[in-house]
Amino acid sequence: MTGRAYAVANAERIKLTTLRSPLWASGAAALLSFALAALQASVAYDYERLTVATAALGVAVFGVPVLMIVAAMTMTGEYRSGLIATTFMATPGRTLVVCAKAVVAALFSAVV
Predict the structure, then answer these.
(1) Contact 50, 41 (CB under 8 A)
(2) How much is the pLDDT for 1?
(3) Burial code of 38-57, b = ≥16 C-beta within 10 A, e = fewer?
(4) Cβ distance 94 to 79 under 8 Å?
(5) Which of 4, 33, 17 is nearest to 73 (CA)?
(6) Would you say 8 and 95 are in contact if contact means Cβ atoms under 8 Å apart?
(7) d(Cα 44, Cα 57) in Å, to the nearest integer?
(8) What CA–CA distances, in Å, run from 35 to 17, 52, 53, 61, 111?
(9) What's 14's DSSP letter?
(10) Which of 7, 3, 17 is nearest to 77 (CA)?
């Protein structure tokens, strides 16, 4: 990656981490996932039947859709307020901006 790509990715990281909605959504997804896994464990009559894969399904049920929403907010959030025009004026290469948004959203999802 070039210096310009790092700068654009850093700008997108700042945009993502300064908003409260991705952090709240990620926290809610984690809380709901752990709550569902605990609920599955508490109602299991035979602990041998409750496999790790079954408990991990709670993460997929709540975590993945929330991360998809966070990724969609990352990609489209600037269109609502019209700030995308400013972003494209600062970085005329639209492909670079979209790729930076995708990389930042993917890294955020991987960390969460």
Answers:
(1) yes
(2) 62
(3) eeeeeeeeeeeebeeeebee
(4) no
(5) 17
(6) no
(7) 15
(8) 25, 15, 16, 12, 20
(9) H
(10) 17
CA–centroid distance for 21 within its chain = 10
The token duo for 44 is 């299991």
Where do we find the tokens 């975590």?
63
Write the pLDDT tens digit of every residue in 9-50: 999 899 888 888 888 888 887 887 778 777 777 776 666 666
Which tokens belong to 111?
């960390």
The angle that helices 3-18 and 94-111 make with each other, rounded to 10 degrees, is 50
- Which residues have a Cβ under 8 Å from the Cβ of 82 and sit 6 or more positions away? none
By the 8 A CB rule, do 58 and 36 touch? Answer: yes
